[in-house]
Amino acid sequence: MYEKASDFEQFLETQTDNVSALLDVMKQETSAIAARQSPDIAATAKQKLTLIQRIQLCDAQISKCPESTSPSNDATQKIADIKAILEQCHQLNEANGIALQRAHLSIHKLRNLFQEAAGKNEMTYDSDGKASGSRTLGTNVKA
């Protein structure tokens, strides 16, 4: 029985490490979003997925332990700490998601402005209805 309690405590320690690492990655993601570094944003997304999978696996292992139904005071405190870190991760993830949505919308609007500006001056359409830029439209016409 002592060995199983030790496993339970080890799982809690591992879970604490996992959620702490997730929080660190979330903070890195926030910095990458603020700096508009898309390769870093993509890398942190992959790291987040890996850590979330680890957290889920560890959760499954913890739930199989009999101690999870009536944890000791120390274990209860560790569980509360894990939940608090996860709540921070959730809040940071929400904020990062909103920031990414705003950045995407901003880029979309900018792209539309460029297309409109180009369309006013040099956009033409071929027989298939595809838009193309043409600065030479009408330059070979002789009157």
Can you describe what's shown?
The structure is a single chain. Strand 1 and strand 2 form a beta hairpin. The chain has a two-stranded antiparallel ribbon. It is elongated, with a radius of gyration of 27 Å. It is mainly alpha-helical and 143 residues long. It is built from three helices and two strands; from the N terminus they run αααββ. The chain is 78% helix and 4% strand.
Offer a concise description of the structure.
The protein has helices spanning 2-35, 38-64, 73-122; strands at residues 123-125, 131-133. With 143 residues, it is mainly alpha-helical.
Topology overview:
Elements: H1 2-35, H2 38-64, H3 73-122, E1 123-125, E2 131-133
Antiparallel strand pairs: 1-2
Helix pairs in contact: 1-2, 1-3
What labels describe this entry?
143 residues, mainly alpha, two-stranded antiparallel ribbon, 3 helices, 78% helix
Question: Which regions have little confidence, pLDDT < 50, spanning 5+ residues?
Answer: none
Structural class: mainly alpha
Apparent shape = elongated
* Radius of gyration, whole Å: 27 Å
Question: How far apart are the first and last residues' alpha carbons, in Å?
Answer: 100 Å
What average pLDDT do the residues reach?
84
Strand percentage lies at under 5%
Give a quick account of the main beta sheet: strands, pairing sense, barrel closure.
2 strands, antiparallel
Q: So how many helices?
A: 3
* Helix percentage: over 70%
Run of helices and strands: HHHEE
Strand order of the largest sheet: 1-2
Number of DSSP-assigned strands = 2
| Quaternary structure annotation | single chain
